[in-house]
Give the backbone structure.
Amino acid sequence: MNTNVLDMRRIQSVKGEIWLPGSKSLSNRHLLMAAMAKGTTRLSNLLVSEDTERMLDALTRLGIHVALDQEQNTCVVKGLGGKFQAQAAPTQLFLGNAGTAIRPLTAALALTEGEFLIDGDDAMRERPIGPLVDALRQLGVHITYPVREGYPPLALIGGAFDHDTTELDGSLSSQYLTALLMALPLADRDTVIHIRGEMVSLPYIDMTLAVLARYGLKVRHEDYRTFFIEGQQTPISPGEMLVEGDASSASYFMAAAAIRGEVTVRGVGTSSLQGDVAFSDVIEAMGAEVQRGPDYILVKSGSALRGVDLDLNHIPDAAMTLATLALFAEGTTRIRNIYNWRIKETDRMTAMATELRKVGAQVDTTDDSIAITPQSAPRRAQIATYGDHRMAMCFSLLAMSDAGVMIENPAVTAKTFPGYWAALDSIAEFQR
């Protein structure tokens, strides 16, 4: 038997509470800001996963003192009170497939005197970073591509900027703008960023701006098209910081409850910074019953789920959960304006279409959309996960079908949710 395949037990329904692990996006933002802040920051409910471990490893190599308690999900970070210290010798950083680490660190190191080789795993070498590099080059940063134009690895020589205005293509990923916004307040001069094209995933930009504000940094913008950043700002530690639960992870449990059951996810709600809490609006539109509080969302299955036609550019990660939930809905579900699925941990558009067809769905795709029409009850299949944590978690919903499902490489969820399978089991009422 192949031990890298999980043959999931069939789930009749779900019931209970889920306390969410910390948000990956917020965890890595807070780790970087705490490292550059004046003072010591204690982060609680920090996500301990592959992506945050990559950030912690890099910070340690850059001279930051961090004390991680994995059992308590806390980390104490002693900040520098400014940009990273000059590196006397060339420094190599390996960041796996952590986009929330490689993009912000590249911008932060552009301010740091020294030579850096910034690399990732094979999957990261397929994820474009050209828009961020182009923006940094316009500011005078020297960056080259040792292997492939537009993709990691990067050879970077950091230091002061020569120019104060840059232009950024916002159409591929919000992480490029987030990277600049986290670094440029520490630059020696004021800077201006002009956005070209449609700015995708705006809730993630709002999240970044909110994090910056918690560390006392000010950024002004005009309708998200032009950003004005005052230089020579010093981030100030907030002292204690609770990382809110991961709203993207919440989507799997909310979707399961929408199929059959009742689940309360705790750690996200109406006061959340994360855009993915809007997934609750999606399942409500499909027919689920939803109650919301400041730090919880309760989902209960209602009448039969119905397909929806939605622009989910603002929540592309949670949109993946909708793609598999569509298998349990009546009619066609169409998800639009999600081109950046193609440049995530894998080409998610192709991967999702391939696996949905395996279980019997009719699937039609364009460059930036996918339409899913269930033909009958889902068929049993072995789902490839493409090294992508979200593929594994999304398709786990098929355990709620009569056919069941097999998931290849289930350990891939360790990227953002090491305890996912145990969490799902904790609310599952299994078929007998």
Notes: The first helix runs from residue 24 to 36. The two ends are 23 Å apart (CA to CA). The chain has a mean pLDDT of 96.
